[in-house]
Amino acid sequence: MHETTAKPKVAVHKFSSCDGCQLAFLDMGEDLLTLSAMVDIVHFAEAGMLDADATVDVAFVEGSLNTRHDLKRIQAIRRNSRFLVTIGACATAGGLQALRNFTDADAWHSAVYATPEYLDSLATASPIKSAVHVDLELWGCPVNTRQVTGAVRALLSGVTPAVEQDKVCMECKRQQAVCVMVAKGTPCMGPVTRTGCGALCPRFERGCYACYGPAENPNTDSLSHWFEGLGLLPEQLREQYHGITSQTEPFTAAGNRYRK
Fold this sequence. Notes:
Layout: E1 9-14, H1 23-26, H2 30-38, E2 40-44, E3 56-62, H3 68-79, E4 81-87, H4 88-93, H5 105-112, E5 136-138, H6 145-156, H7 168-174, H8 180-184, H9 200-203, H10 220-229, H11 234-241, H12 249-256
Parallel strand pairs: 1-2, 1-3, 3-4, 4-5
Helix pairs in contact: 11-12
């Protein structure tokens, strides 16, 4: 009789997030059947599989770190995983919840909660890589099915996954989208943001929100001069950089130049 080779094990873990990146798995359609034939998904709470302490080949992690309990969990996940892959803006760059890093979080806690001393909250919201080694980052808000399936295939084949490095501006040209900054004077982060979304926002005449994080060699000084020419005030300039991916060094630094 032929021995059955065990399929690689995969886990999907959630921290502070909206669950949008986990939906990239559930929205796969037929590709999900292909994935399930390739791997054994042993933990994925949103899909009903529960085994958070399982030892796996690939652990996908969504969300940012906000509590001491989060720190303990992510250390355990790292120990139990051959590869750890962060998915989405929250896990890779802190996400929207990291905006509290620019304010007095304790003051907010006192204003909202009657007994804030019971909160298990860290001083800042942080990306996963601030606490453990991350083997691969999948950027996006949210990530897409193509990224997830590509990462699984590459990692399990011993191949370094391809990572997009082109800027959103290049994708706009490929999609034949009109530049919203030139044509309409709309502030857009496309010149400093990596592509991966298909230039979704500019194709619908909206500026890029930098969901996929900073591109290779982002020239934030030049873009800031453009924004100033469009009439943006210092507070508006800061908000361009301190958004979904605020906890990435190029955007943190660029935004801090306009803080009061």
